[in-house]
């Protein structure tokens, strides 16, 4: 009779910050953990390899500076680092790469932008993508940022906070949503194709010209969308005036998580497992950074972050339940394990 295999524990390192010199402590702790030979984090990247440092767009300026510090560590080890991000699903100025990068740059307190370029992995308008048939037995196709196949490794920096659809955004959210193309994000947040707001459609015909599949035609007094032809790219929403064509961001947690985890699994298939995850842990009172989590396993680092968030009161019971569902789905997809060993270090 075969013995049952013992479940593997993933390594998660926590560097707490408890003094007044948080910014200086933040950088020194990150440098010590990431370069510690026993943890084998940045050592996975080889010399002359281009390594992206992915930043979450809702992070504080301190975290943006941390991203630059990590890029500097990579350069000192011989890698070729760059700071990267993707477009958002909403059709706002930040959906344009130039405006989005300018917005990101405004948060940088140092001149590191001169040394570390910002790269939009999904192109100028979020349309540069690769389409993959999901290989983890989940139904929908995935749409990832088009530059991902050329990224040799990545450090993914995230901010832990509550989210109504995944319970808690963190490493898995950054992996599955943050690295998806605009169409990939739209498919996660919307359960249907765009709809025509009849009262606001002024038949300007811009959406007809923008549609790449000729899925839009003129009706009697407004445009009509052929659901059989629509590929859910969102181009009509982007150009439509007066809100004539809009999305209903009506995703349920089940819908969002299924597609987000599917994207996360495919991202790992494309980039490989040479990804290091860093999560910023904050207090619930003033969003002050209280420490950093580090791991090579996105499920483990989110499981550790979930436990801390629950203990500090950052998450509600509903958020916790939804986040636990997300972790289970990620484990089923083979992304990682929630079983982890947390090692607290002090520098």
Sheet with the most strands: spatial strand order? 4-3-2-7-14-15-1-16
H and E string? EHEHEHEEEEEEHHEHEEHEHEEHHE
The overall pLDDT, averaged over residues, is: 86
Give the CATH H-level superfamily of the largest domain: LarA, N-terminal domain
Alpha-beta classification: alpha/beta
Explain this structure.
With 347 residues, the chain is α/β, with parallel strands linked by helices. The protein contains ten helices and 16 strands. It has helices spanning 22-35, 61-76, 97-105, 171-176, 182-189, 206-210, 235-239, 253-271, 298-312, 317-332; strands at residues 10-16, 50-54, 80-85, 118-120, 129-132, 142-145, 153-159, 161-163, 167-169, 195-196, 216-218, 223-225, 245-246, 275-282, 289-295, 340-344. It has an eight-stranded mixed β-sheet with strand order 4-3-2-7-14-15-1-16, sandwiched between helices. Helix 1 runs parallel beside helix 2 (61-76). The protein is globular. The N and C termini lie far apart (48 Å). Mean pLDDT is 86; it is low at 1-5.
Characteristics:
Rossmann fold; two-stranded antiparallel ribbon; eight-stranded mixed β-sheet; 16 strands; disordered N terminus; Alpha-Beta Plaits; globular; 2 domains; 347 residues; alpha/beta
What order do the helices and strands come in, and which of them pair?
Blueprint: E1 10-16, H1 22-35, E2 50-54, H2 61-76, E3 80-85, H3 97-105, E4 118-120, E5 129-132, E6 142-145, E7 153-159, E8 161-163, E9 167-169, H4 171-176, H5 182-189, E10 195-196, H6 206-210, E11 216-218, E12 223-225, H7 235-239, E13 245-246, H8 253-271, E14 275-282, E15 289-295, H9 298-312, H10 317-332, E16 340-344
Parallel strand pairs: 1-16, 2-3, 2-7, 3-4, 7-14
Antiparallel strand pairs: 1-15, 5-6, 8-9, 10-13, 11-12, 14-15
Helix pairs in contact: 1-2, 5-8, 8-10, 9-10
């Amino acid at each position: 009779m075969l013995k049952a295999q013992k479940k593997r524990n993933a390594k998660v390192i926590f560097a707490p910050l408890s003094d007044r010199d948080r910014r200086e402590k933040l950088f020194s702790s990150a440098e010590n953990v990431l370069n510690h030979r026993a943890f084998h984090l940045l050592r996975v990247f080889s010399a002359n390899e281009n390594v992206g440092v992915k930043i979450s767009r809702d992070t504080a300026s301190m975290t943006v500076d941390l991203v630059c510090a990590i890029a500097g560590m990579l350069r000192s080890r011989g890698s070729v680092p760059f700071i990267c991000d993707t477009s958002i699903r909403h059709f706002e100025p930040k959906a344009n790469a130039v405006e989005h990068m300018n917005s990101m740059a405004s948060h940088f307190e140092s001149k590191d932008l001169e040394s570390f370029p910002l790269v939009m992995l999904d192109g100028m308008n979020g349309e540069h993508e690769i389409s993959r048939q999901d290989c983890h037995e989940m139904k929908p196709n995935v749409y990832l940022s088009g530059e991902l196949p050329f990224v040799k490794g990545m450090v993914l920096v995230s901010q832990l906070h509550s989210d109504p659809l995944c319970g808690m955004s963190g490493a898995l959210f950054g992996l599955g949503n943050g690295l998806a193309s605009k169409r990939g994000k739209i498919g996660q947040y919307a359960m249907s194709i765009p709809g025509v707001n009849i009262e606001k459609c002024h038949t300007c015909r811009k959406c007809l010209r923008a549609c790449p599949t000729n899925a839009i035609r003129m009706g009697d007094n407004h445009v009509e969308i052929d659901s059989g032809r629509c590929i859910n790219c969102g181009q009509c929403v982007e150009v439509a005036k007066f809100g004539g064509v809009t999305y209903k961001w009506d995703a349920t947690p089940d819908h969002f998580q299924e597609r987000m985890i599917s994207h996360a699994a495919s991202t790992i298939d494309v980039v490989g497992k040479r990804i290091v995850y860093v999560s910023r842990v904050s207090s619930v009172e003033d969003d002050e950074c209280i420490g950093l989590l580090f791991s090579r396993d996105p499920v483990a680092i989110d499981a550790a972050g979930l436990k801390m968030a629950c203990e500090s009161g950052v998450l509600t019971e509903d958020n916790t339940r939804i986040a636990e569902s997300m972790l289970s789905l990620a484990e089923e997809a083979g992304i990682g394990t929630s079983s982890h060993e947390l090692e607290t270090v002090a520098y």
